[in-house]
Amino acid sequence: MSNVELLSPAGNFEKLKIALAYGADAVYAGVSHFSLRIRSGKEFTYESFEEAINYTHAQGKHLHATVNGFPFNAQIPLLEKHIERVAAMKPDAFIVAAPGVIKLAHKIAPHIPIHLSTQANVLSYLDAEVYSDMGVKRIIAAREVSLKDLEQIKKHLPHLELEVFVHGSMCFAYSGRCLISSVQSGRVSNRGSCANDCRFPYTLYAHNEESGTLFRIEESEEGTHIMNAKDLNLSAHVKEILDSGVIDSLKIEGRTKSSYYVGITTKTYRQAIEDYYANQFDATKYTAELDTTKNRGFSDGYLVNRPFEKNDTQNLAHSISEGTHQVVAQVSEDGATCLCKDVLALHVKYDLVMPAHLSIEAMDNDIGTIFEEEGLWKISFKKLQTPNGKVFDEIHSGNVNAIVLPTTLPGFTFLRAKVKG
């Protein structure tokens, strides 16, 4: 078996660069409202999307273009033009959900492989065979499918590639087939504009139809986020997944997540994959890094457990937590300066989180110190200075002044601090 692909989200061009720098083999991204993430789709123009594809290919990596919305009749002429225009940019695959769009994509761009979106909810080899007969090269499995079922699909259809989500947000509904957002705010989930209504706190009432009395059901704060699904985290199960020998790609959710999230999740799963192939897999190693990202609590979902076998997939207390660490700054692409994301102060030790497989050396000068402590690289500033010589005692988020680093660091390195709790 060849090494599994690690597929990361690219919500914009910078996040795409970060994903590739932190160890992704491929990224997925979209442009326009035909993608299921309208907000991230707006981050790309057609021109910048083509530039992103060329950049990715220059790195020897792949880009999968999302066309996974469910179009209405009025949108079809625009969809045809969209597919034709993106196909000319030579992405490595189209991610498609609707059978009609599969047929349309094959007609317009028969040379672009089709990957079937998780939105299609493939749970069995019968469904997988139908899509395979339609020319689909890869199935992105439904979130609800088990690893054993995927083994059966691969047994019946050995030529068909299988991709599974291993990390990121989980939907309250079946792989995103949800109407809550549509009903409450008119924002349609399967057209890319979900308002995440399932993350909201709700108050429950009981209505007596005979008397017309409305009773408020008293609750503690815990229990009001009744539809808030925990985030998926299968890092501890990467060995089990790869041992199966049937999975071709591990996918990380999160095109609307932060740059830091993209970097940390990509680097962590890259490490887990490499540890597996080096016979050094250790499930306990990966948890701490993933805990540094904002999350809703973690669950291992349904790939290794049936839904009825567990009752820990909902976070009833709150919609999201901050994680164990806060990003305080992000290093520029050229590595010479950083921009503040929280608070940068003098003489404070900050962790350095660098792209995969890169290292630095300890140093000390009048700007600051870079050193290793307890197995982590750290930085401490003696001077917060802009390239034109302006000096600060402290920098806060929102300040757009670039701050000079003590030495050139790998591009897109993050400075972070532990959250005081």
Describe the structure.
With 421 residues, the protein is an alpha/beta fold. It folds into two domains: 5-170 and 229-299, TIM Barrel (Alpha-Beta Barrel), CATH 3.20.20.70; 325-418, Elongation Factor Tu (Ef-tu), domain 3, CATH 2.40.30. It contains eleven helices and 24 strands. The chain has helices at 13-21, 38-41, 46-58, 76-87, 99-108, 125-133, 147-156, 180-185, 238-243, 259-277, 287-291, and strands spanning 5-9, 26-29, 62-67, 93-96, 114-116, 138-140, 161-168, 205-207, 214-216, 231-233, 249-252, 298-299, 325-331, 337-340, 343-345, 350-353, 363-364, 368-373, 376-381, 384-385, 391-392, 394-396, 403-404, 414-418. Strands 1-2-3-4-5-6-7-11 form an eight-stranded parallel β-barrel, surrounded by five helices. Strand 18 and strand 19 (376-381) form a beta hairpin. Helix 6 crosses helix 7. The mean pLDDT is 89.
Measured by DSSP, the beta-strand proportion falls in 15-25%
CATH class of the largest domain: Alpha Beta
By CATH, the architecture of the largest domain is named Alpha-Beta Barrel
Number of domains: 2
Mean pLDDT: 89
Q: What is the topology, as strand order, of the major beta sheet?
A: 1-2-3-4-5-6-7-11
Distance between the amino and carboxyl termini: 45 Å
CATH H-level superfamily title of the largest domain = Aldolase class I
How many strands? Answer: 24
Helical amount: 10-25%
**CATH topology tier name of the largest domain:** TIM Barrel
Total number of helices = 11
Computed CA radius of gyration, to the nearest angstrom: 23 Å
Helix/strand/pairing class, anyone? alpha/beta
Low-confidence stretches: none
Biggest sheet layout:
8 strands, parallel, barrel
Bulk shape: globular
